[in-house]
Amino acid sequence: MPPKRKASTSTAQATKRARQPRKSAAKSKSQTDPVKLCEEWFDRYKDSDIQDQAIISPDGCQSFFSDIHVELDSVYPILLGYKMNASRMEWIHGMRELGVDSPEKLQSLLPKLNHEIINDPVSFKKMYLFAFGFAKTTNQKSMDIDMAMAMWQLLLDDPKYNHVNAFIQFLQEQRPAKVINKDQWTSLLDFCTAVPENLDNYDSTSSWPVLFDDYVEWRLKKRAGSS
């Protein structure tokens, strides 16, 4: 019988590799599965004091915005709150809807997302209405007047919302209210789109909140005084 030959180096290496345990499919999948990546991303900010850990804590929110380089006094926290909120399920759904699974991807997407929303009247109105609940104090039905004015300056900073600056001036000078309720908040956006800056088609018998009647009266008096 002829002597056995030693296995070639390449054959030996192939045999060695074949005998080595393969990496688990689950681990490999976790590195590429978008849902898993979003879950792991969420877990960085979740509230460890909550038993089911299904929401992001206030400190977690600050860390999240810091990671994506977003200023807390910009429109982006409102935009992101509107898109996904702070619960685990809504976070994952929102991120998947946006097509992102990392801070870097989200950061690069924000300007485009903001542009799309502010140029879509339907989407913008939905975000504007969401902002009322987002900014008011929890368990309160109304928003503090100073907070409302700051939010209007942030959200309605566009010439097409031609009553905003005058309306804020009216609130600051006359102080007719200490809080803004949901009806008043909603009505300002509608007022800006329905009533021209010169107030020509304003109808005092229409269903605008009384605060807007007072605003128009103030505007007309100022106009008469300057003529």
From TrEMBL:
Using the UniProt annotation, give all residue ranges assigned to the region (Disordered): 1-33
Query: Which GO terms are recorded in the biological process aspect for this UniProt protein?
Result: protein neddylation
GO MF term set: cullin family protein binding; ubiquitin conjugating enzyme binding; ubiquitin-like protein binding
Residues forming the DCUN1 domain are 33-220
Listed Basic residues bias regions: 16-26
Q: Name one GO cellular component term.
A: plasma membrane
InterPro entries tied to this protein: DCN-prot, DCN1-like_PONY, PONY_dom
Give the function comment from the record.
Neddylation of cullins play an essential role in the regulation of SCF-type complexes activity.
Q: Which PANTHER family does the record match to this protein?
A: DEFECTIVE IN CULLIN NEDDYLATION PROTEIN, RP42 RELATED
Q: What is this protein called?
A: Defective in cullin neddylation protein
Which organism is this protein's natural source? Syncephalastrum racemosum
